[in-house]
């Protein structure tokens, strides 16, 4: 457990964000499948990526992916087309998370996959073989997970036959399918997108041996939240640019403030905030269906900067994450006097009774994002966070970076 505070309420310095584990995980799979000699620079040190890298280069045929959901799903597709017999298992929570929709499509393509315990759940046994598309259209529009669709897209050149995938462009986190397409194109594959239909070429024209992975925008938003809550900030973020591959940047300007200035310079972004008495202006509704990983950060930030009433959309996938994030966020907010209730496809937040008390203790639910999303509140009053080590899953140096920029951490 830690006690986190920032007495000066100032953030001055440079923050080198962790590299994107979303891009890293995709490029590790694509490298193993198509370009083993590819040099990947700035590979993520997040636990998920380290687990994936280790397993892809292991001589074993039984794998424990721990709590890494992306790794579990990507490896299921990867080993379906990789000769050999493989057993994949993970934590109890991970094996409760959905996998059946992905396996169903793979089985239709001729994959040999067996559930070892409960139908539809891990652990699983995979016998890798050649997969064949017996139709010109593979309809995966019923799949609700972008990770399932991404896993299938990455092995598409390995599947015999000429075919299109049909996807649901309105699915939660569809932006991550677009990220997968961007990674495939960087690997030299032509990818055609026509509305809901996606086709990946079998031929590859890769003209490089080097790929640098960019910083992670999801991690950037913790710092955006901190800057909003600071009295004064001047931070430079190397490598962050508005033309990065990741689409989370779309959310950057939804909550703005006249005293906050962003400027791209020296291959990065400098953000400056000066003291100001000007008030924020909030939209009536915010939609996080494409970027659910940053929803918790904004849910904790908005009441702290004066937003009393707002509607959220797109939080329905949160209950299927590392923990039930919908419930965990609700419990976090309850501790600061904020009410969050779901109604149809909306979540209504009432922060009219907002109050953060000294040394409020926030549970992490064994979930890295539930720890990091509350950290910015320590700029208002000292808070306590249990099981702080969970951040290793995506941002191992998070607490060290906070200390370097002006936060005080007491290990209890």
How would you describe the overall organization of this protein?
With 412 residues, this protein is an alpha/beta fold. It has two domains: 2-18 and 216-411, Enolpyruvate transferase domain (UDP-n-acetylglucosamine1-carboxyvinyl-transferase, Chain), CATH 3.65.10; 21-202, Enolpyruvate transferase domain (UDP-n-acetylglucosamine1-carboxyvinyl-transferase, Chain, Alpha-beta prism), CATH 3.65.10.10. The protein has twelve helices and 22 strands. It has helices at residues 21-34, 47-56, 69-80, 92-96, 100-108, 146-155, 174-186, 217-229, 295-304, 325-334, 368-372, 398-405; strands at 2-5, 10-14, 39-41, 62-64, 84-89, 112-115, 124-128, 137-139, 164-166, 189-194, 197-204, 210-212, 232-238, 260-265, 268-273, 285-287, 309-313, 339-343, 346-350, 360-362, 383-385, 408-411. A four-stranded mixed β-sheet has the order 20-21-1-22, with helices on one face. Helix 1 packs parallel to helix 2, helix 3 (69-80) runs parallel beside helix 6 (146-155) and helix 6 packs parallel to helix 7. The longest helix is centred in the N-terminal third of the chain and has 14 residues, at 21-34. The termini are close together.
Write the layout of secondary structure elements.
Layout: E1 2-5, E2 10-14, H1 21-34, E3 39-41, H2 47-56, E4 62-64, H3 69-80, E5 84-89, H4 92-96, H5 100-108, E6 112-115, E7 124-128, E8 137-139, H6 146-155, E9 164-166, H7 174-186, E10 189-194, E11 197-204, E12 210-212, H8 217-229, E13 232-238, E14 260-265, E15 268-273, E16 285-287, H9 295-304, E17 309-313, H10 325-334, E18 339-343, E19 346-350, E20 360-362, H11 368-372, E21 383-385, H12 398-405, E22 408-411
Parallel strand pairs: 2-13, 3-12, 4-5, 8-9, 16-17, 20-21
Antiparallel strand pairs: 1-21, 1-22, 5-7, 6-7, 9-11, 10-11, 13-15, 14-15, 17-19, 18-19
């Amino acid at each position: 457990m830690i006690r986190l505070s920032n007495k000066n309420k100032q953030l001055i310095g440079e923050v080198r964000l962790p590299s994107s584990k979303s891009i890293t995980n995709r490029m590790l799979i694509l490298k193993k499948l198509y370009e083993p000699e590819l040099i990947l620079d700035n590979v993520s040190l997040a636990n998920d990526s380290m687990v994936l890298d280790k397993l892809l280069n292991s001589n074993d045929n039984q794998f424990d992916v721990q709590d890494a959901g992306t790794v579990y799903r990507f490896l299921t597709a990867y080993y379906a087309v990789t000769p050999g017999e493989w057993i994949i298992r993970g934590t109890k929570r991970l094996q409760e998370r959905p996998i059946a929709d992905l396996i169903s499509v793979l089985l239709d393509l001729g994959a040999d996959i067996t559930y070892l315990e409960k139908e539809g759940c891990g652990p699983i046994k995979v016998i890798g073989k050649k997969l064949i598309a017996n139709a010109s259209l593979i309809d995966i529009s019923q799949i609700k997970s972008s990770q399932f669709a991404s896993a299938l897209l990455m092995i598409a050149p390995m599947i015999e036959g000429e075919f299109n995938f049909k996807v649901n462009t309105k699915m939660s986190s569809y932006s991550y399918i677009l990220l997968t397409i961007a990674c495939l194109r960087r690997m030299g594959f032509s990818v055609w997108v026509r509305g809901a239909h996606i086709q990946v070429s079998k031929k590859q024209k890769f003209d490089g041996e080097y790929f640098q992975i960019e910083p992670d925008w999801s991690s950037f938003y913790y710092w955006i939240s901190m800057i909003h809550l600071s009295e004064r900030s001047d931070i430079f973020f190397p490598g962050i640019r508005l033309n990065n591959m990741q689409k989370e940047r779309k959310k950057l300007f939804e909550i703005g403030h006249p005293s906050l200035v962003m400027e791209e310079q020296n291959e990065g972004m400098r953000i400056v905030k000066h003291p100001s008495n000007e008030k924020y202006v909030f939209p009536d509704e915010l939609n996080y269906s494409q970027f659910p990983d940053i929803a918790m950060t904004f849910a904790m930030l908005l009441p702290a900067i004066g937003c009393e009433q707002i509607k959220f959309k797109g939080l329905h996938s949160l209950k299927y994450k590392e923990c039930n994030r919908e419930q965990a966020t609700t419990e976090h907010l309850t501790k600061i006097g904020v009410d969050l209730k779901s109604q149809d496809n909306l979540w209504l937040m009432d922060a009219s009774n907002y109050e953060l008390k000294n040394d409020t203790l926030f549970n992490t639910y064994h979930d890295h994002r539930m720890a990091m999303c509350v950290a910015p509140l320590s700029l208002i009053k000292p808070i306590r966070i249990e099981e702080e080590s969970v951040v290793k899953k995506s941002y191992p140096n998070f607490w060290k970076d906070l200390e370097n920029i002006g936060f005080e951490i007491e290990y209890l």
